[in-house]
Each structure stands twice: as structure tokens, then as C-alpha cells.
Amino acid sequence: MTKRNIILVSFIIGKFILQYTLIGPEYDLQRDEFLQIDQGHHLAWGYLSVPPVTSWISYLIFLLGNTVFWVKFLPALFGALSMVVVWKTVEELGGSLTALILAATWVFFSALLRLNTLYQPNSLDVLSWTTFYFVLIKYFNSKNPKWLFVSAVVFAFGFLNKYNIAFLLIRLLPAILLTEHRNIFQEKKFYLAIGLGFLLIFPNLLWQYQNNFPVFHHLKQLADLQLVHVNRWDLFKGQLLFFFGSLPVIIAALYSLLFYTPFKKYQLFFWSMLFTLIVFAWFKAKNYYAIGLYPIYISFGSVFLVEILNTGWKKYLQAVLIVIPLLIFIPMYQMSFPNKSPDYFMNNSGPNKKMGLHRWEDGKDHALPQDYADMLGWKELAEKVDSIAATLPELDHTLILCDNYGQAGAINFYTKNKQVIASSFNADYIDWINLDQKIIDVILVKEMDDEDKARTEEIPLFDSVYLASKRINRFAKEEEISIYVLRGAKVDIMQRIIAERNEEKNYE
Length: 508
Fold this sequence. Notes:
By secondary structure, this protein is α/β, with parallel strands linked by helices. It has helices at about 5-20, 30-40, 55-65, 70-90, 95-110, 110-115, 120-140, 145-160, 165-175, 190-210, 215-225, 230-240, 245-260, 270-280, 295-310, 315-335, 340-345, 350-355, 370-375, 380-390, 405-415, 450-460, 495-505, and strands at about 400, 420-425, 440-445, 460-470, 480-490. It has 3 domains: about 30-335, no CATH class; about 340-375, no CATH class; about 380-505, no CATH class. It contains 23 helices and 5 strands. Helix 21 (about 405-415) links the parallel strand 1 (about 400) and strand 2 (about 420-425). The longest helix has 25 residues, at about 70-90. It is globular, with a radius of gyration of 25 Å.
């Protein structure tokens, strides 16, 4: 094994070790992770909020034992592979071993550390963006049409993971028109590659059509409930925070793409960066949507900086550039990861609040960052539901109905009772309710204490309705969750379920 490969393998091993130390034992899985995991039990070509690739990965996690270890392994793997692609990009650009180490270090100690702690489509999204750029560079260097087809496959896989990658094309095509590569539009194989990409994503597009394009419904909800609180300037501030330690390398990359002669043929990457941030700002996108942009620019910046700092005393600056991200990471480790207790973060929230990390999607500051709050209280909720379910004589005819997908997914993941399967009218769970089940009893999981309303609405349908338990956690996003038991259905509850399900699925 060569010296380069030994160093690269060391970075990869270090990446996995560090990722598993960034989440403390006080925290459960995060709300969205439960939904992604349950999708693996309901394979389809599409879902209300995401394309199908996540469900394929979740099915693999299920085959591996469906444990927290494997849930956290996959995003760490995607982060490690992103680092590998950056490494290979530096090699493709002719970078030295020092440039390789510099690039790997900056990617290692970047925002990807936090992104890779959660099992969501975002980690694979960054890998897809980075790999697409790498393949594009391979094509520019070789002019071999095979790389056009490889790029089509990479784009299609990224699209089937997260629609966010569509923004890559929205701003890449005009960037190409501004550079010498515009003649690509005259090549027949370019359009054949587009045809291949379309063919690969067609099953998902067909699913969207057959289900009345729920992605647009999801985007509208996102805009109405979350993006409405997004300040366009926060997008740009977020970019500085995500890759604050990498700013010298990224700025160097943008400069080199305009003025460094060996990078002249890659100039479209400068315009691509500019167009992407403009498009994201226009749509008031969340700041982390743009994270996939940056790893490839770290490749350019590393090669350029090592080249211009390669003589005399300037060589010492190379070592400084390698040490900087580590020095920045040390204080970030104390506050930017859920590796401390909720009490600690509440009592030491000053720095995080100044950076906006305690601001939730409602636009307000809270005791904990939203991701952390969304990782608390789930296991306890599942334990309480298990305890209540054990008291009911006919669990086969008991429906567990939750207010939202976080509750349903958490119960399904943490339950110790194989007969406990939670449902909801929220997100994809609306399609997974067993409509053939005969319902006698219902366990109703509600986000807030609304006992009077529950009694008023449900008593006419059941012999008895009572509050069985509560899960209270002052740090959780859902501080109080009430669990009701509805015994002895007087009517065909499933007919009511079907009616409500159809009403909820009316996206118009």
C-alpha cells in the first residue's frame, strides 16, 4: 500500500471513529430518522416527501439488524466517501500529497461532521453533488463521452435520493453557456446521456404523476410552514458558519477559477457557485441545502494554495492551513454537537444563540437547537405505549394512532412488542395504515394534553375513553405527549379511518 493510500485510509478510519463520539447517550434517534427507517418496510418508487433511494438503504439497515449502529454507519459512510471523492479530485487536478492532506483535513473538520450524524438524505445528497462535479472534471480533462453517461447515472441516483440536486442543473447549464464548454450542446452523446438520466428517474416521475405530484404539496407546506420564517440573508450567513474554517481554501478556489491559468477550463465552477446561491436565495431555501456545493471547491483551493505557497518561508503556511481547521474544531466540538446533556446546552447557550443555532423553523430561539430537541423523549414514549398495550386483551384488533410521523416512527423503532405497530395520518404513514384490520380498541397518541376534546369527539364511538399516561420532557420539541385509550368501538372505526385518510390525501 502506497503512502498516499495509507494516509487516505487513516482519514477514513478517523472519520468513522469521530462520528460515533459526536452524539451523547442521552439522545435518541432524530424525528426524521424514524420516518426514513420505516420507509424501508414499505418499498415504493416514491414517498410524500422524498424519492425512493432512502427506502432502499433503510431496507439494507433492516437486513443488517435495524440497530442504531447501522443507522449511524450509513451517513458516516457517505461522509467518508465524500472525502474520498475530494481526494480523487485533487489527484485529477494534479495536486501534491500536501494538497491531498490539506483537502482531506478541511473536509474532515467541516459541517459534514454534523450533517453525517443524522440518517437523512442530506449526507448522500452531498456525496452525489461532489461525485457529479468530479465526473464533470474527468470529462473536461479527457473529453471521453463515457463520462457524460457516468454523470447521467450519478445525477439520476442523486435525484432519486433528494430532489435538491435538480438545482445543480438549474444553475450549471447557464454556467456552461458562459464558458468554452458551450459546444457540449452540439454533441449527440450529450443528449443521449440526458435520455439515459431521464430513463433512470422515470419510475419516480411516473409515481409522482400517479399520486397527483405530492412533491408539490410537500413543497407548498414547506414554504408555508418553514421557509416563510427564512431570511434570505441567513442563507449567506449560514454558508459562512458551515464552512467557516474552510473559508481561506474556498476563497482561494474562487480566485483560482478566475485567474489561475491551469484552472481556466474549470471556470464554469465559479459561475456555478454564484448562480446556485442566487437561486437558493430567491427560493428562500434553508441554508444547509447548499452544503453540497463546497467539497469540490476545497479541492480547487487546496491545489492552488499549495502551488503558490511552495517556495521558501511560504511552505510553513501550508502547515498553518492544515492546523487551522483542527483549532477551530476544538471549541466547536464543545457546543455544536449533541455530545453534552440538555442541561449543559441550556446553561451554556450563549455562543450557539449568537450563531443562530437555537433558532427553530418557527423563527424563534429555544433552549436547545431543534435537531437536539428532536432527539429527546422518543424511547420513553415507546416504553409507555408498550406498557399500555400490554394491558389490552386484543392487541391484534388495536389501532395505535399518532399525531405525527415522529411519534409513529419512534414507537415502531423502539417498541419491544412485535404486535405494536403505530400509524398516523401524517406524512407517508397515511398510506401504510392496515385498512383490513378490525378495530376494537385504539391507543391515541396526541402531541398536547387535550383530554376534554378527545372525550367529546371519541366517547360516542367507544364504550370508554381515558387518559392512560403522559410523556413529559421539558427539553423535547414535543414537551408533553398524552396517550389515551379508547376501549370497545361501537361503530366500524376503519370506515372512519378510510374517510379521513382519503380527505387527508386530497392534495388539492
